[in-house]
Amino acid sequence: MREHLGVTIIVGAVLLAAPFFASANAALVTDVSVDTNRAAAARSRTFTLVHGQRTWQVPAKEVATWFKTKSSGEQTLLQLRPGAIYDYLNVYVSPKVNQLGTNSRFGYVGPTLHLLFGGTKGKIVDGVKTSLAFRSAVIAGKTSSPVYFKEHRPSVFSAEDFKKLSFPDKLSRGESNFAGSPSNRVHNITVAQQRYNGLVLLENETFSFNQYLGDVDAKNGYLEELVIKENVTTPEYGGGICQVSTTAFRAAMEAGLKITTRRNHSYPVAYYGAPGYDATIYAPYTDLKFQNDTGYPVLIKTSIVGSRLIFDIWGTSDGREVRINGPFITGKKSDGSITAAVAQFVTKNGTTIREQNFVSNYQSPDKFPTIRAANGG
């Protein structure tokens, strides 16, 4: 089951590299001639960065740190301070506009490596071109300039990228059972779980369920099935995908990975067993996220055995030990609402790395009447 809960998310960023030691960026620190009055004016007024319909008003105090000037005879020379420009772009611009693309996914059938899902290249802010555009604007007496982009290649894009990695140890298995699901729900689970098979997370990389899910519509193979949306349970494309996010959540918990974003369903769903060990998603608003903090790349393998959905996580053991406590029901009310909890304890060499406690507050299912389409779908 998918669920809509109206949560705003922020797109992740790839930080720009400092430009000082790259020969390709030599133009950034080259002195250029500028009219003295234009340089002075640039220091005293706001400057606008533009990308499509987006604009960023850079305060004059900030603009003044982006360049320095010096006199040379009768000329005023301007030199950029690219580090200051990059700092601003990394904080205010890149996180809002970068599109990181997606890794390709691979899997072995016997000794033969197969491409399971092709990755996509993204685009990120080009700090060099954006900085040079700013300089040109100052020289011309303008108060705005565009934000430029460059192609971003994901870290696991080709078969050769994948072959360089190693996953000797099985770190965890997450399971859930969808027995009794309607055929459309089974279909959606089958389609969605394939999006994660062969997915690699590099060291410190954060997994976003929605990033790899893609659009949930008929074009991508989904059928209509029940979802929790606002205050009703109603058919919508992709009903059942939360079986996949729930199973991914359990695998990450069992592997001792750091869970950074997780939300429970509005009411307990029988397919997920004891309440408290589920994770709802509704792209692009509600996401499931966890971080690979093992220090090594990890590989996600998914499969369906009968009515069991399985997420296996492979990598290199760093010696951590994981204990899952629960899930337990911790409270019940007469209206049918309940509270449940599950905890993750991660230790290494006798030292606690992390304790995460996830409390789930479920409302009564009676508050979410089922509304089916006129044709009974």
Question: SSE layout and pairings?
Answer:
Elements: E1 3-4, E2 32-34, H1 36-43, E3 47-51, E4 54-58, H2 60-63, E5 67-72, E6 75-80, H3 82-97, E7 105-109, E8 112-117, E9 122-125, H4 127-140, E10 144-146, E11 149-152, H5 159-163, E12 169-177, H6 183-193, E13 199-201, E14 206-208, H7 209-213, E15 224-229, E16 232-237, H8 241-254, E17 258-261, E18 289-291, E19 298-305, E20 308-315, E21 320-332, E22 338-348, E23 351-362
Parallel strand pairs: 1-15, 3-10
Antiparallel strand pairs: 2-6, 3-4, 5-6, 7-8, 9-11, 12-20, 13-19, 14-18, 15-16, 17-18, 19-20, 21-22, 22-23
Helix pairs in contact: 6-8
Strand order of the largest sheet: 12-20-19-13
Instruction: State the end-to-end distance.
Output: 15 Å
Mean pLDDT: 88
What spatial form do the alpha-carbon principal axes imply? Answer: elongated
Determine the strand fraction and express it as a percent band: 35-45%
Number of helices: 8
* Protein structure class: alpha+beta
Identify low-pLDDT runs.
Answer: 2-13, 17-23, 373-377
Radius of gyration: 25 Å
What's the helical proportion of residues?
10-25%
Give the total of domains.
2
Largest sheet: 4 strands, antiparallel
Report the strand count: 23
